[in-house]
């Protein structure tokens, strides 16, 4: 059977479309991460949240603030894996909540120091990478 160049081109386009759909979930997270990088949240979070502040039922200790700041710094440096690691460290340090609770807590925290839209984007990013964050936090046990 002879395959024409047009058929080959069609198959390549189909293969790219299938690969694109598989990667779409991570692309959304990447776009949000790029947006967060533009906000400079790593600098904001380090100075705006006071140790001992309780937001979203979580007492923000120095260690938790440091993990959150490092997660944002990693996002600003396009290092998604490192950001996931620090979000996982934060999740691991807060007992009794899941990744949805973490997303809500971080959003509540950020709403106090930045705009609602920025806080909502961070919430969405945490949920986007929720399975990776949860898996990394479980490995820490």
Structure explained in plain terms:
It is built from 7 helices and 2 strands. The protein has helices at 5-39, 41-48, 62-76, 80-93, 99-111, 116-128, 130-139; strands at residues 54-55, 58-59. The protein has a two-stranded antiparallel sheet with strand order 1-2. Helix 2 (41-48) packs antiparallel against helix 3 and helix 4 (80-93) crosses helix 7. It starts with a helix and ends with a helix. The model is unreliable at 17-32 (pLDDT under 50).
Total domains, how many? 1
- Put simply, the count of helices is 7
Report, as a whole number of angstroms, the end-to-end distance: 57 Å
What is the percent of helical residues? over 70%
What is the 3D shape?
globular
Structural Rg: 19 Å
Reading side by side through the largest sheet, how are the strands ordered? 1-2
Low-confidence stretches: 17-32
Write a concise synopsis of the structure shown:
By secondary structure, this protein is mainly α.
